[in-house]
């Protein structure tokens, strides 16, 4: 194992604080230390009924904005129920992801190794290679907007982005279902902050996103003995992330109030929503980018099962500016382009040469 990654198993987030572009005072180990962590068994992540957000009644939309805003300000995570996406689509997608990673030969994946396009590193990440600082026990594949034929582009070529035919239209169904939730969610959070709920409509109409397929193989003895985690502790670099609940647990959320970890197992068919660095920046720290990671399942019987997840991170195009929203007090941050902001943060994962200065 590379020396830097070996050190990463015992690293703490503050070791990389020079890369951050928003205030992050919390301190934590990147990887769960078996038997040495404190867990918060009392805190409950709030659930929000999305029917209120989609209601024709202003009072319902106000109630949803209040519910989601309070949860996001407190912890940065919430569970969305009654969001309108068919749970069967999520079950089919989990099966499809396992097929995707278990049947596509390694040789076919090599042509799609991750590269930066605009702000975002897109493509295939082999196991233990998600970052340069920690050997995550996960394979990943990031598909951004350009990988999907969302606009019936006659020049679109599926093989440029996908290693086998048929997957793009299947995963596009999830992307389109989640795309319909972007504006109602953003408008609700803006409404809670007391700013124009439609001030980001144009920026988010056809915006970029990162649809990531995660495949966590069964935990073999060599994995368990290495001390590595399934996914290191981190904060998302986006406005917010939509994550359908996984059938295998492991997601942990840091409660900054007591520095204990919350094991989050959301109900089947629900969506876990969390805010990221973009949102913390524009909200002047009102909505924090909350730390999370993936550890071993609580039940040892699940260690021998693969785990999959498919978060969709909502970005802005790289030429958009991130500015503190009006009416939120003296700005703590100056305006910055999404390109400069995003690549500065993620250079901790990919190397300092990844950062783009302007």
Account of the protein in words:
The structure is a single chain. With 358 residues, the protein is α+β, with helices and mostly antiparallel strands. The protein has one domain: Jelly Rolls, CATH 2.60.120. Helix content is 29%, strand content 19%. The protein contains ten helices and 16 strands. It has helices at 3-8, 50-53, 58-74, 87-103, 106-109, 167-193, 201-204, 221-226, 277-282, 338-350, and strands at residues 47-49, 77-81, 115-117, 120-125, 139-144, 209-216, 231-234, 240-244, 251-255, 260-263, 271-275, 292-294, 307-309, 312-314, 321-322, 336-337. Strands 1, 2, 3, 4, 5, 6, 8, 11, 13 and 14 form a ten-stranded mixed beta sheet that branches. Strands 7-12-9-10 form a four-stranded antiparallel beta sheet, with no helix packed on it. Strands 15-16 form a two-stranded antiparallel sheet. Helix 3 crosses helix 6 (167-193) and helix 4 (87-103) crosses helix 6. The protein is globular, with a radius of gyration of 19 Å. The mean pLDDT is 95.
Helix content: 25-40%
The CATH class is Mainly Beta
CATH architecture: Sandwich
**CATH-defined fold name:** Jelly Rolls
- Intertermini distance: 35 Å
Classify the beta-strand content into a percent band.
15-25%
- Spans of at least 5 consecutive residues whose pLDDT stays below 50 are none
Overall, the morphology is globular
* Structural class determined from secondary elements: alpha+beta
The helix-strand sequence is HEHHEHHEEEHHEHEEEEEHEEEEEH
Strand segment tally: 16
Total count of helical runs of at least 4 residues? 10
**What's the Cα radius of gyration?**
19 Å
Number of domains: 1
The major sheet is characterized as: 10 strands, mixed
